[in-house]
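Input record (one chain):
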Amino acid sequence: MSISRRSFLGLIPVVPFLSSAQPSPPASKNPRFPSHDDESVREIVGVSHGNLARVKEMVTARPALARASWDWGFGDWETPIDAASHVGNRAIAEFLIANGARPTIFTAVMMGQLAIVKPLVESSPGLQRLRGPHGLTMVAHAKAGGSAALDVLKYLESLGDADPRYPDVPLTEAEQASIIGEYSFGPGPSERFNIAKGPRGFTIQRPGGAERNLFHHGGLVFNPPGAEAVLIKFEGDTVAVEDGPLITRARRI
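The corresponding structure, as predicted from the sequence alone:
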């Protein structure tokens, strides 16, 4: 079942295109050292959607950030070049590649590189069905590439299955009311999340975290974007978040 344009656009997390930011904390104050600090990683991925000046500033100062990766939730990892690729920002993508970023097939799709995309798909049948960050498809990346990616778009559309969509089964009013609310999965004040319905559909969000869309399979079973193997199942006032054998249970407050 296809999803609406509103829901499809809702796959993309809301990120600030910051023009300036506080300096990154020194290693002695970074609890994740020798890993990059979370603030810098989240910012470089965020600004790589559309703020070339800030991308240049950050990567020039710290070149390794060109290959950083941020998990928006449930394993929906995104690198700076992933961000530039799915919004069609060729200038940022080219700058990142010149500074050590690793382009993916989704980058090649967005940039209209048919000579790269076609052999990869032909050598790995079914590759065209692969989803990128936020669950965005190859066709979506080709459309983001505009006129430069028209030949790639035509090729992908000719395959017939390069634009898989998440299920979007409608919920009754009673079903909607039964899942909306705040849930707790531990004693701490931050060990909770909120299920809400907004203009982009149903979402799940922890305090201070990114808002993630939910896609309904039916029977009050959902998946978040970019992590179709993760299932979120509601039953009464409880919810189970199943990530393979790892199951987190929460109860509505």
